[in-house]
Design brief:
about 475 residues, alpha+beta, eleven-stranded mixed sheet, 25 strands, about 30% strand, binds 5'-O-(N-(L-cysteinyl)-sulfamoyl)adenosine, binds zinc ion
Length: about 475
């Protein structure tokens, strides 16, 4: 899988019923039922975490009038080359072209201006999960680089002070960390260099994980927008002492790229291996009938499914007329975390055989303790997947302090290199140019730097992380 990651990924999308990639428009793909369930479970977790921290869900229109879209100069410079335009309504040319949102700052903030009157209206913390359109020029890839991002969770906030906006960035980082932790996807968090900051933001913080081929994948970003958008969209509020001030804003987003991250982080040569928290089916029950003993086996299998389902486990009975071995393979490929086998022997002994997808371990579970045991094993699978993924992720971060070694490490081993840096932008761009690798940024909670900058030989003030990104 490491060697042929791309092939593995494309293969598994179809054979595990995640997506059909044959839609006749570049960068657009079709979600299949099983994949869509996986997506829904993952985004349900994320929405729940946001709601717990006071974010409220909203839903804005897809179309943005050109004049409004073009108000924030930096933002436009960043997105202009990627915007799809609606120019006609039927046969008639529109007076004002309409942009298909590439992200929603410019559709939301004019409305925020109408909502915000006084300090009592702040903070605003909203989010939506929508489709966005970006005419990406880099090679498109299902789930990873789309032209229609179908699942764009974007949060937008407005605050009275700069400090509150900074604090909001940290809250967002914390929310994203717990989300990625829940699905066992390891990450580094960095402040992006100036040249890679979101269009219109003061600074951007990003989460990156690793693909099996050694390239990094940006799986989420948090931006401090400062007053940049507030000034052009006139987002003012009245302070308690009657002054009028612009608000401070943040925005942060995660897309279905995280589904790709979940798939590639835990998958293996057999197929997917899904954390139970997001698995569409958490336990699949496979009856192993023997001639003449079908009746009790089928009955027990039905009872087991019912018992699990009523106690909140997503259980599925595979009673198709196929050999058990075929069924095993079918569900292993789709990453179902736990398989329960029931044959005549199990009926007689009043237990079931549980087989873990992550370790292939076989366990006997007494019927009397079925539900508690299944739930415990599922939790155990999730924490095992999490720990395994972090272990291998940490092993792919290499400390390097010379230009030659940075290049060599990224070529031979891939992954991420941690480089001491003087904190001057010129040295950052120079490392990038000399190595051909990208600077992810400065680690958010990085250790104090030691050593010297590989470019200017001055004492290091920080570490930068570098990699070859997707
Ligand atoms: N308005 C801000 C915050 S919501 C924004 O648009 N940020 S972003 O451009 O960085 O996008 C947020 C996340 O969406 C990225 O970190 C990346 O994981 C994902 N993303 C961006 N573009 C694509 C794309 N073309 N296909 C799939 N995922 C994407
Ligand atoms: Zn330097």
């Amino acid at each position: 899988m490491q060697k042929n990651f791309s092939e593995w990924f494309n293969d598994i999308l179809r054979s595990a019923d995640i997506m059909d990639t044959r839609y006749p428009v570049k960068g657009l793909y079709v979600w299949l039922p099983y994949g869509l369930k996986l997506r829904n479970h993952a985004f349900f977790l994320l929405k729940h975490l946001l709601e717990q921290k006071g974010h409220q869900e909203v839903l804005f229109p897809l179309l943005i009038p050109e004049d409004i879209f073009k108000k924030e100069a930096e933002h436009i410079r960043g997105f202009e080359s990627q915007v799809y335009w609606v120019t006609h309504g039927g046969r008639d040319k529109l007076d004002v072209k309409l942009a298909l949102r590439p992200t929603s700052e410019t559709s939301m903030y004019p409305m925020f201006a109408l909502w915000i009157r006084s300090h009592a209206d702040l903070p605003i913390k909203v989010y939506q999960v929508v489709n966005i359109f970006r005419c990406e020029t880099k090679m498109t890839k299902p789930l990873i680089r789309l032209r229609e991002v179908t699942t764009f969770k974007e949060a937008h906030t407005a605050h009275a002070t700069a400090e509150e906006a900074d604090a909001q960035v940290l809250e967002a980082v914390k929310i994203y960390k717990s989300f990625f932790d829940k699905v066992g996807v390891p990450y580094v968090v960095t402040t992006r260099p100036k040249w890679d900051t979101f269009a219109g933001a003061k600074y951007s913080v990003a989460f990156d994980t690793l693909a099996p081929d050694g390239k990094t994948l940006q799986i989420g970003t948090v931006h401090n927008l400062d007053q940049n958008f507030a000034k052009v969209y006139d987002l003012k509020f009245e302070t308690p002492d009657g002054k009028h001030k612009y608000v401070y804003q943040t925005s942060y987003g995660i897309s279905e790229r995280v589904i790709a991250a979940i798939m590639m982080t835990h998958g293996d040569d057999t197929g997917l291996c899904l954390p139970s928290r997001v698995a569409p089916i958490q336990a699949v029950i496979v009856p192993i009938p023997f001639k003449g003993k079908e009746v009790p086996v089928d009955q027990v299998a039905r009872d087991v499914v019912k018992e699990l389902a009523t106690s909140g486990v997503r259980a599925h009975l595979d009673d198709r007329d196929l050999r058990p071995g075929m069924k095993f393979y079918h569900w292993e490929r789709r990453g179902v975390p736990l398989r329960l086998e029931i044959g005549p022997e199990e009926v007689k002994k009043d237990h079931v055989i549980a087989v873990r997808r992550d370790t292939a371990e076989k366990l006997e579970v007494p019927r009397s303790e079925l539900v508690t045991n299944v739930k415990r094993i599922l939790d155990d699978i999730d924490s095992n997947l999490h720990d395994q993924a972090w272990k291998s992720f940490e092993g792919s971060i290499t400390e390097v302090s010379e230009v030659g070694a940075i290049k060599k490490t990224l070529e031979k081993k891939g992954g991420i290199v941690r480089v001491p840096w003087c904190a001057q932008e010129e040295c950052g761009t120079s490392i990038k140019e000399q190595t051909g690798a990208d600077v992810l940024g400065q680690e958010l909670d990085g250790k104090t730097a030691q050593g010297i900058c590989p470019i200017c030989s001055k004492k290091a003030k920080a570490y930068v992380l570098m990699a070859k990104p997707y």
